[in-house]
């Protein structure tokens, strides 16, 4: 999307998060056209910039999730730094904050302090376990939230523990971005923004709504191979081929399953949805698929509607012509001036633009402009920069 375009053009956002879910949230808003300002330490030690893996000295997290934003380095531990933040916050529409519950309030930059000055401002927080409840102060990462919510139990195997997968971060970020957009819409009607919370634990819980409904309404504790979509049925499972590669079979509907059986020569005996015969049917399917390589089976299935897919690696997925044609890979400009490939925003507003080059900000890039728009005179910006309160090169 061209700079200054998009449905959120003209909306100004302060990103008060240093890595992870908050950065993802504000990246989504930036991709929708918002003018996002990344608040970060004045010494350039922001985790997103420095955390490995690095591309020519710059963190991949920063390159991917901070593209399209601008940089506002400010020392929030200093009273003068908090004054600067409050002045800037008085000019924005949304603040996204990813601190532990209570930290922003102790710094004097919480929702209450900011909305007292600007009621139209929307304040979106991203606590780990939420601002209330026995776990509200506990530390955690995506893997912890996925474990506690029950996500990992859905992928448990008989002989191996489930591998970590990122679920909580992405869903919490998506919900937070939705809350921010909702706040902007409400403020446009009522001049009053929203205070919203999207915890990472709630994000993990959100991924299990169907399983939770079964647990609550039917008394069934859903886990691996205990429900239709968690591997209970042989027609919805993953199988190993003769060369060790994997095929994902998701032929839930009868027409897909019957065609799959016809192409593989399997006689299921009418057991597709017979819960009492799934182990035998799964063993039959596994035995048949193990007779040929993955490539050979894919040739057999061809363009048939059987809902069978190869289990690809990340790199293999990126090489799919389908991904390239839909501009699933884009371009961004590294702070050193070079252009590198990067995953693109999956939400397309209009035709995908494969030629767009997003920019990842250098430390303090554009800070003087923002500070000036918040009412700070050039001499004051110079003084704050020299004192280490802000970094505005």
UniProtKB/TrEMBL annotation:
It comes from the Bacteria. Keywords: Transferase. This is CoA transferase. The lineage of its organism: Bacteria, Bacillati, Actinomycetota, Actinomycetes, Pseudonocardiales. Pfam families: CoA_transf_3. One of its GO terms (molecular function) is transferase activity.
